[in-house]
Amino acid sequence: MANKWVLFTESSDNVGGQELQLMQQMRQMQQHGLRTMLACRPGGRVEQVARQQGLAVLPVRFRNSLHLPSIAILRRWISQHQPRLAICHSGHDSNNLAIAARLVWHRPFLLRSRTYQPGKPSAWSYNRLVDATMVPSHYLRDALLQNPAIRPDRIHVVYPGIDFAGLDVAVNQPLPAHISDWLAASAAPVLLHAAMLRGEKGHLTILQAMVVLRDSYPHWRYLVAGDGVARQQIEVEIQRLGLADRVLLAGVVSPVAPLYRHADLLLMPSTYEPLGMSQIEALALQCPVLASNTGGIPETVADGRTGMLVEAGNAQAWAAAIAAALDSMPQQGQMAEAGARDVRQRFAPDSNLQQIMALSGLSGLLAASH
Fold first, then answer.
1. Measured in Å, how far apart are the chain's first and last C-alpha atoms?
2. Dist CA 89 CA 111 (whole Å)
3. What are the residue boundaries of the structural domains of the chain, listed by start?
4. CA distance 133 to 108
5. Is there a contact between 272 and 111 (Cβ–Cβ < 8 Å)?
6. CA 295: distance to chain centroid?
């Protein structure tokens, strides 16, 4: 079984979409007979969630990009277990893994997952540090290749896998009482925004659109699920605009799936989004979607066929789109049904796994695991 191992590394302290995606990939590989190990910081949130999911963990501190104890632990584990594939993510773990792998006789294929690019991309890290990098959208790949020194054959689009089976189970779970009470207080349409509270997520754009529609569409309500650094700014703007009776800042909601069942529309007004997950999950559960025409979002929503795309940051355009959607809810439902068929095929976890193994040249290993 030594050659059936796949090593994952993650030096992040937080658990977000990227970390949950790697854990799902681990579970998916295990279902295909592969053995997986996650190297992550001991005592951190990533380790905690991984252990809760029954995943094997290798404690590695990843204190910096050249942390000799971390390199030694990884080298020893790789030498002992001889994994065919190693998937890295954040900066520190990718650097330490790349060094450790090159200190053994038969190193694994090194595949890095990059979900965003902070600052100017380094050609050396893409061309030499790892064997290949997977990104979640053609948009992000094109952005990286704006650096002409980066080799195009080293950057590959691999759409994430969404746990649709888990969504289907979670959608019927009860909501927290403060949300249930707020929903029960009115029969007005609910527009859901499930995203971290950060400037690029577009919450202020929707609040401005609510003001534009205050007289002509006064009844719809705005449910915000998430938390983050922009919370205070958003709270101040809600009060300033006199919208407190129509907006609920619900905080972090986990799982978020039950909210899609209660929402009339899912809003995704981001000004920057390499791909986005909320709109994919909403469509999978047949919740109609209005999303920004920016970044990788158009790769997930076909305008006029599976949802509506709106100019990012333009409150007037968002007000018009919301009004049009509220006036055509049967058509919105039909588009959401088409969207469900589309995303459940393109973003299936098994499709994600097949792409990863093909990219790593290990499709035969996966086939032999059935």
1. 14
2. 9
3. 2-161+348-367, 165-346
4. 14
5. no
6. 14
Closest listed residue to residue 282, CA positions, set 299, 260, 259, 297: 260
CA–CA distance, 317 with 301 (Å, rounded to integer): 18
Quick check: 192 and 260 in contact, CB under 8 A? Answer: yes
pLDDT surpasses 70 at 362: yes
Sheet with 35-40, strands from edge to edge, namely 57-59, 35-40, 5-10, 85-88, 109-113, 132-135, 155-157
User: Which among 37, 43, 45, 38 is positioned nearest to 2, based on CA atoms?
Assistant: 37
Write down the pLDDT at residue 17: 80
Average pLDDT over residues 167-181: 96
Task: Give domain 165-346's CATH architecture.
Answer: 3-Layer(aba) Sandwich (3.40)
42-77 burial code (b ≥16 CB/10 A, e <16):
eebebbeebeeeebebbebbbeeeebeebbebbbeb
CA–CA dist 53, 122 (Å, integer): 35
Beta bridge partners of 135: 157
Q: Answer yes or no: same fold for 2-161+348-367 and 165-346.
A: yes
Q: How is residue 6 written in tokens?
A: 């796949």
CATH class, range 2-161+348-367: alpha beta
71, 77 in Cβ contact below 8 A? no
Write down the pTM of the prediction.
Answer: 0.90
Q: What's the one-letter identity of residue 23?
A: M
